[in-house]
Design brief:
The chain is an alpha/beta fold. The chain has a 6-stranded parallel β-sheet with strand order 5-4-1-6-7-8. A two-stranded antiparallel sheet has the order 2-3. The chain is globular and about 55 Å long.
């Protein structure tokens, strides 16, 4: 697929720009075991835990709100020490900044926690908006979080606004919001859900290369002084 310069890029967070699955999994397993629920494996957590607000009522029934509070206490007690930028993520954000397109994050992580993590990494200034769970009426795959981010950017939806993520939930959100989708990583379910319109990149470094190529095209076609 031939790529055109995007007007803006909306990034997923966990698994797309940062690695926090270890901390997420530990907090979830501790919460499950405290309530007599069979704990998930790390692979199950990565594959199934797309939205706490959607999955906790299924896991914990009527007690899901207390379980969610417990999970969040456990996760946010150690999350800043446990997260790390994925390999190539910073280079990707640098390439996007050089392209000149505004950036935002659209995550199903609790909004306040998302913003603390961005600040911890020194990335807050890279994004015009950091939209997390609780900042919109619904989580991804509903289009509401993407629409909140677009409003913050002052943009309308369109295929030239890219939503970059690592999961089938991100692809569905892009489709529901009328955005172009970029899939990073090797998640089998996400690749199975991707159609021919989805751009695919192996990792952050590969996407950075694509973005740098777009920047080179812009520079080559820019008018030159006479």
């Amino acid at each position: 697929m031939t790529a055109r310069r995007p007007r803006a890029l909306l990034f997923d967070w966990d698994g797309t720009l940062i690695d926090s699955w270890g901390a997420i999994h530990r907090a979830l397993v501790d919460t499950q075991e405290a309530r007599g629920v069979a704990p998930w494996t790390l692979a199950e957590t990565r594959a199934r835990l797309s939205s706490l607000r959607e999955h906790f009522p299924v896991l914990f029934g009527d007690a899901w709100r207390d379980a969610l509070d417990d999970y969040r206490r456990r996760y946010y007690a150690t999350h800043l020490e446990a997260i790390a930028a994925l390999d190539g993520a910073e280079a990707l954000l640098d390439a996007c900044a050089a392209l000149g397109a505004p950036l935002a994050v659209v995550s199903n992580k609790l909004g306040d926690g998302l913003r603390r993590e961005a600040a911890h990494l020194g990335w807050s200034g890279r994004f015009a908006a950091l939209v997390g769970s609780g900042d919109a009426p619904y989580d991804k795959p509903d289009p509401a979080p993407a629409r909140v981010a677009l409003a913050a950017l002052g943009l309308d939806a369109g295929p030239d606004v890219w939503l970059v993520g690592d999961s089938a939930v991100d692809l569905a959100c892009a489709r529901n919001a009328g955005l172009g989708a970029v899939l990073v990583g090797d998640d089998a379910a996400a690749h199975a859900a991707a159609d021919a319109r989805v751009r695919r990149c192996a990792d952050c470094r590969a996407l950075a290369g694509l973005v740098r190529g777009l920047q080179a095209d812009v520079e080559q076609t820019a008018p030159r002084p006479i």
